[in-house]
Amino acid sequence: MSTTAVPVLPCVDPEALRDFYTALGFECVGYQVRPYLYLAFTRDGADVHFGRFARDADDTGICLLLVDDVAAEHAAFKAAMKGLLGKVPASGEPRLTRFRPGASRFTLVDPSGNQLLIIQKDEPEFEYGGGKELSGLAKALDNARILSGFKGDDAAAYRALTSALRRPKDGDTDADRALALAFLLELAPAAGRGADVPGLVGELRALPVTAAELEAAVATAAEPGALRALLAGED
């Protein structure tokens, strides 16, 4: 005998939710607004339902989806959102969080503010504060990655990494600094620190690293092409 659990989330605009989820590849298997609200969607064996109108803007829910290939899921949702909206919003509702190479989870926020947290089924364990086997900037980078990717707190990740750069440790290399600055450039807009971007670009350009080391840092970004263009001074 098996048991299935189905999340039932709040809804702001039923039509907007139906358009959003069907565009993302979900099948709408139930839709009614009278005598009471109920929407039901399914995709690849995962069911997401909506059973009432949201009481206010803070009345939202969270649903975890465990998947076999998290990178492929992010690519599919990104393409679908771009097709629906003409862009992939990183703020507001709906939105899709960044996906860095090697990441094991991301968050999709629907038009009602509900979060779908999509996680790789075999996601490795992690330690807040950074891996115990690491030190210096490498540990700070790991901590920032966890704060941003797992906790969803880009501002905390930005603060932690900025602090680590200001307090260098023995063993930190310019290649490590390049990785940290590249990550800060990615975090800055989401952390509300967009004004810091020109200074960070200048610092990264000025580092005495090889072309290969700089490219290795750029390649860790969720959007390497955008970071390359930024460093090249392109609009």
Q: H/E series, N to C?
A: EHEEEEHEEEHHHHHH
Give the % helix: 40-55%
Number of domains: 2
Average of per-residue pLDDT values: 93
- The CATH class of the largest domain turns out to be Alpha Beta
What's the quaternary structure here? Answer: single chain
Question: Main attributes?
Answer:
single chain, 235 residues, alpha/beta, 2,3-Dihydroxybiphenyl 1,2-Dioxygenase, domain 1, 2 domains, four-stranded mixed β-sheet, 18% strand, elongated
Can you give a write-up of this model?
It comes from Tsukamurella tyrosinosolvens. InterPro entries: Glyas_Bleomycin-R_OHBP_Dase (IPR029068). With 235 residues, the chain is α/β, with parallel strands linked by helices. It has two domains: 8-120, 2,3-Dihydroxybiphenyl 1,2-Dioxygenase, domain 1 (Roll); 136-232. The chain has eight helices and eight strands, in the order βαββββαβββαααααα. The protein has a four-stranded mixed sheet with strand order 1-4-3-2, covered by helices on one side. A four-stranded mixed sheet has the order 5-8-7-6, covered by helices on one side. Strand 6 (95-96) and strand 7 form a beta hairpin. Helix 3 packs antiparallel against helix 4 (154-166), helix 5 (174-190) runs antiparallel to helix 6 (197-206) and helix 5 (174-190) runs parallel beside helix 7. It is elongated. The N and C termini lie far apart (58 Å). The model has no long low-confidence stretch (mean pLDDT 93).
